[in-house]
Amino acid sequence: MKRILAIVLIILSITATCGVVFADTDNTSNNTEKENSSTRYTFFGDTSTDFYISGKTARWTLRAGKQKAYDSATVTTTLYKKNSGSIASYTNTFYNSNINISNSRILSSRGTYYVKFTIKCYKGGALKETITLTTGSDIY
After folding, report:
1. For residue 31, what are the β-bridge partners?
2. CA distances from 128 to 10, 11, 37, 121 (A)
3. Of the residues 37, 61, 86, 133, which has the fewest C-beta atoms closer than 10 A?
């Protein structure tokens, strides 16, 4: 009797395991639609930042691909030195276009630096979205 019960339990556990393994084998467009519909931002799709220090010069870039029409976007770029705060700040305005910013600054003292980008998107005169992106840090 114990032997039969053990065999039945083994068969049930194998069947249950196979059912779980093959539960999500549907690779149709539904999976793609789920991934595409979970965009992180409303007005911009792909965003990328870069920051590095070469010699005494800090260099940074921001790229944001327009995903949806907007009236204007104000980008505030701030260079920070860790444990010291803001070193420099720049503001650019874009009108219904992709965002491409590339800038640099000569550093006056050694330390660890990083850049923070704040994108404010306006439509119909109203602020619709604020995006904050922070780069990795680099040491001078």
Report:
1. none
2. 58, 57, 19, 6
3. 37
pTM of the model: 0.69
**Cα–Cα distance for residue pair 112/79, rounded to 1 Å:** 11
Q: How far is CA 55 from the centre of its chain?
A: 28
Token digits for 28? 């149709």
What pLDDT tens digit does each residue of the chain (140 aa) get? 667 766 665 665 665 554 444 443 333 333 333 333 334 678 888 889 999 999 999 999 999 988 888 899 999 999 999 999 999 999 999 998 999 999 999 999 999 999 999 999 999 999 999 999 999 999 99
Contact between residue 84 and residue 101 where contact means Cβ atoms under 8 Å apart: no
Give per-residue burial for 88-110: e unless 16+ CB within 10 Å, then b. Answer: eeeeeebeeeebebeeebebeee
